[in-house]
Amino acid sequence: MTWKRVATAVVLIPLVVGLVRWGPTAVLSLVLALVIVLALFEYFSLGDAIGHRGYRFWTATCALILVYVTWLSAMESRWKEVGEGAGRLQNIEHWFGRLPSIADVFFVFVLGVAALTVWSKRPLVEALPAAGMSSSGLLLIAFPLTYGLKLHAQGQYGPWLLMFALVITWVGDSVAYFVGRATGRFPLAPQISPKKTWEGSISGFLGSLAAGAAFIYVLPLSLAQLLGMAAAGSIVGQVGDLLESAYKRSAGVKDSGGLLPGHGGILDRIDALILTFPVVWYYWECIWHSASGIP
Question: What is the pTM of this model?
Answer without folding.
Answer: 0.91
